[in-house]
Amino acid sequence: MLNLDRFVIDDGRHLPQLVIDEDASTAAGTARFRARCSCGRMASHPAGTREQALAAHLAHVNTKIGPSKGPKWLPAGARVIILAVAMLIIWGACYATGQVVTHDQDLTGATAKTVLGGSHLAGLALAFGLMVAARRYIAATRA
Q1: End-to-end alpha-carbon separation of the chain, Å?
Q2: Cα separation of 90 and 100, whole Å?
């Protein structure tokens, strides 16, 4: 009997999916298994026996998918502060650009508000884009 208690994972996203590979089974004359994971990140892994398939799945579960790539000498809190400052600088540069454009072109009324609103939105989009791009360098992740 198979004891599935040892394969329970804390996040509930990694459940083994074992299937019999019909092509390999026909060629070998015995049942050949193929292991997959419910998270969708594990490539279909061919294995000879059910135990080998479960061992392949367990190796996948114990693998760190996205370790922190930030500098080890700089704590995560400092990296978050640096990111926040960089986001503020990007937004400020877009805001200042909008101000310069409205004053240099002598824009008034609705046109000036549109240009300033567009510069605000562009600054926010760029700042949050930086945040998304740098998320792997800020804190460690685990699958």
Answers
A1: 29
A2: 15
User: Rounded to two decimals, what is the model's pTM?
Assistant: 0.49
- Please give the backbone phi and psi of residue 13, each rounded to the nearest 5 degrees, phi first: -95, -10
Mean pLDDT of the chain: 76
The Cα diameter of the chain in Å comes to 83
Please list the alpha-helical segments (H only) found in the chain: 22-28, 50-61, 76-104, 109-133, 135-138
Kind and range of the H or E run holding 47: strand 45-47
Cα separation, 67 vs 111, in Å, equals 47
pLDDT 10s digits, 66-121: 444 555 667 778 888 999 999 999 999 999 999 999 998 888 889 999 999 999 99
Separation of alpha carbons 14 and 60, rounded Å: 9
Q: Are the C-beta atoms of 119 and 97 separated by less than 8 Å?
A: yes
Residue 46 has pLDDT above 60, yes or no: yes
> Residues 6 or more apart from 59 whose CB is under 8 A from it?
none
Structure tokens at 140: 């460690």
Query: Whose structure tokens read 């070998």?
Result: 28
Residue 98 contacts residue 58 (beta carbons within 8 Å): no
